[in-house]
Amino acid sequence: MDYEAVIGLETHVQLKTKSKMWCGCANEFGAPPNTHVCPVCLGLPGVLPVANEEALRLTALTGLLLNCSLPPYAKFDRKNYFYPDMPKNYQVTQYDKPSAVTGYLEFEFNDSLARVRITRAHLEEDVGKNFHFDRNSGVDFNRAGVPLMEIVSEPDLTSAVMAYEYLNALKDILVYGGVSDCDMEKGMVRCDVNVSVRPKGQSELGAKIEIKNMNSFSGVRKALDYEIPRQIEVLKSGGKLIQSTRRWDDPAGITEEMRTKEFAHDYRYFPEPDLMPFQPTEAWLEEVSRRVIELPLARKRRFIRDYQLPAADAQTFVWDRPLGDYFESIAKQAKSPKAAANWVINNLRAKMTESGTTLADVKFQPPAILELIELVENGKISSRIAQDVFTEMFSAGESPAKIVEKKGLAQVSDTAAIEKFCDEAIAANPGPAADFRAGKTAALNFLKGQVMKLSKGKANPALAGEILERKLKAGMETGN
Ligand SMILES: [Zn+2]
């Protein structure tokens, strides 16, 4: 019997706000332990939370970016449980009335467009972090109360690699929208994975097994690559799977059972009495909707369509948005947008990387790239020389035409001058000349190279080729 996997993901994302969810403490990674804390985020008695409006906006914005609807009424609830990293002994979250519901996310997968439905996006708070030392443990509450958004997908994913691609697409959108930096090294994105298997064709879902607290996308992929075959093996050997929670042991490369359903928590959710329900006004929603940006996938498709770029170039301009914007500022006037893309990606980006600079530091104006392309196309300079001109443009900021003039780099199309270089090249290389005459046409390229060298790259290569060929053939007839 064939089996298939059914996967849903719960993705937790720290929001990009200046302050925490219920207090004015800084939302900042890497500060010394317990320096961004106050009575509110330490859960001291008698304090009152004040909701961070930017966090509410970012959650609504995420809803819009993920094609969700934004309900007119959302509220916060207390999720009660005890754990040392959570000083209040409850987490404020949105239980039955979340900020965003029923959307979808589309991404490229297996050469087509995959669509994963989004159940909901809700807002909650992060918890502190436990540290275990040799003889004791400590808790850092800097992270306690940081705005955390949870995005829940429907079980529409069917493989480890599909889950991986979904997570990357989600991350791209959130980074683009300015919702989160999604820096995994800093723990800004974490995931719970729900995975079950069932015989192919069966509509009923198998026992749901949850893998908790994944902190990298590659970890999710590896855990599923282990867990899916494990579950199939259990069923194939006549065993039974029960609903349970497991953890991924990365060094060992296995998942381990943590608890089964009998020990599931009862969180005793109830409405948070210290916070008003949230009912967004038209004006507020209008303001949020103005922050909706073009999604990465739409941008990629537009670059391919409008500028006839190959997918790889378009993708480069999606990942590096400022570079893409730079390209776009000249692409509309470019005769060949692909040529402009080549200069921007292969030369400009390389030079910036090499010199550790950014677009803001570039000394020449973007249209100078078009001017440079024009000089090559008109035969004014060779593409070899164009590379040198670009280097000069990058370091000095002068216009390409000026550089060509100042340095005397214009291509030599003067036949007499090229004839002289050709004679010299043939005289200095009797071997290759004889090879060509004997029918080895590749020898012509070598001789052409010599002419380019003699002319310091300035000879018109097409003309040099023609003249060389004529001279060598003439030599054959006269027996020279
Ligand atoms: Zn605080």
Task: Characterise the protein shown here.
The protein has helices spanning 53-65, 160-176, 217-236, 282-289, 296-307, 311-319, 321-331, 337-355, 367-377, 383-396, 400-407, 415-428, 430-437, 443-454, 461-478; strands at residues 3-14, 77-80, 90-93, 100-109, 112-125, 129-132, 137-140, 147-153, 189-199, 209-214, 244-249, 254-260, 270-271. Strands 4-5-8-1-9-10-11-12 form an eight-stranded mixed β-sheet. It folds into three domains: 3-289, no CATH class; 305-381 and 393-403, no CATH class; 415-478, Arc Repressor Mutant, subunit A (Orthogonal Bundle), CATH 1.10.10.410. α6 (311-319) crosses α7, α12 (415-428) crosses α14 (443-454) and α14 (443-454) crosses α15 (461-478). The model has no long low-confidence stretch (mean pLDDT 93). The longest helix has 20 residues, at 217-236. It is 40% helix and 19% strand. It is an alpha+beta fold and 480 residues long. Bound molecules: zinc ion (ZN).
Descriptive tags:
eight-stranded mixed beta sheet; Arc Repressor Mutant, subunit A; 3 domains; elongated
